[in-house]
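Translate sequence into structure tokens.
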Amino acid sequence: MATGRKEIEAALWRGANTFRGAIDAANYKDYILPMLFVKYLSDTYLQRVDELKKQYDNPVRLERAIVRLPFVIRERQSFSWLYTNRYSDNLGELINVALRGIEDDNPSLFTGIFRNIDFNSEAMLGNHSQKNTRLRELLEDFESLDLRPSAIEPEEGKVAADTIGDAYEYMIGQFASQAGKKAGSFFTPSEVSELIARIVDPKISDTIYDPTCGSGSLLIKTGNTAKEKENDLIKSLALYGQEMNGSSWSMAKMNMFLHQIMDARIYWGDTLANPLHLDSDGNLMQFDVIVSNMPFSQDKWAAGFNNSSSMAGNGREFKMEAALDRYHRFDWGVPPASKGDWAFLLHMIASLRSGGRIAAVVPHGVLFRGASEGRIRQAVIEKNLLDAVIGLPANLFYGTSIPACIIVFKKNRNRDDVLFIDASGRDEQGNLRYKKDKNQNRLEQKHIDDIVAAYHNRLDVGKFARVAGVDEIRANEYNLNITRYVDTLEDDEQVDLNQTKANIRKIKAELAEVEAEMARYLDELGL
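Result follows.
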């Protein structure tokens, strides 16, 4: 029986049900998604070995061919071996050993990918008996799922890797919807990813970077948009990412592999204090396209720069200074310690190649907050880097209900104006420019198309889009609040003064009649 996306999603939901009520929803992904990954590796490796056995009769040549496979899964690391031993008293330990073995035997692909996951944790999975029961059930949830490449039935216009990868991302989104405030750090809603990808308009030849890549969904969507646009589903992508959260980094690595993006460079670390994508001279790498759904207003963003023992010894409180950054990212200004938005944006600008473009999701405070942020904003505008500001509906992102916007930068622009778009209101017919859902608002395809068209056309559209010159922005003291440029107020209803006067006369006459009748009643009562 062929395996489609629905079958994969069904197995993932079975896994979710196994853990529901037992552990926090934000932690489901740390156990369910790696188990899907191990099942995929095991089934894929098994099929490739079987194919080689049919091809080679000579044991020596067969062994040489097996060694040349992209990765190896030994018997005691395989899903089938774990399933056979699912009643073992030390099941959690067996799974941990299998995962570490996969890492050790495939260092170029999987080093550290499971380091943040402990299948033997009683603190997370319950006491010894409860833990064994849940892990056994998890193995049983996936046992019937056939993930051999030959068994995968891709959707029209897609390849087998898309089927597994899309199901994986779907479940990341589902876990994010259940994880509340913890979700924003690892997942960007798919419609926002599509919108950003279409705005930066990537090409297959572009280098694409996400400095806060989470689970990698935005990065993958941007790369796949280039492939789809150029009708080339074969050519490899130059994808680069960095992520500080270990669990999210692991998801990103697995996500890339499941989408068969084998050469993506996804690093684990603090992008601001320790950027890891450097050129041969030790400077920041330069990229054609940068996309990001960064942490909103991150507190203590500069903590990683505080490595001075003298500062700690003299009792002075640490204060970030531009000179502490060897890459000169904060020469235009140092963002406040409690809000790292502009720190990430300045890192992106410093990492952007000439002719490159950035699209990043930011909170609205980035547009108007003063002090050092105001000075940075002024410098960015005066250097003609700001291309567009796109306001999005509230309650669009997992983990926060506040409205956000997409801010777009370009290096070496051939124009000196800024486009403002407000996609949080209504269109000319009075329809919302987004869809209200029970728990979260969404952008549908028409809404995305309208925003993309407005961005590329750069024409004034009433209550939706407007191009503003730099002189106007200067006059507004570099405040980029969208309502200063796009009139979103509803038109006041026209008042018919003659009709209003007639209504007042009528009301007065009726009131006089009521008062006269009341006086008559009082007189009859002798009052």
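Note: The mean pLDDT is 90.
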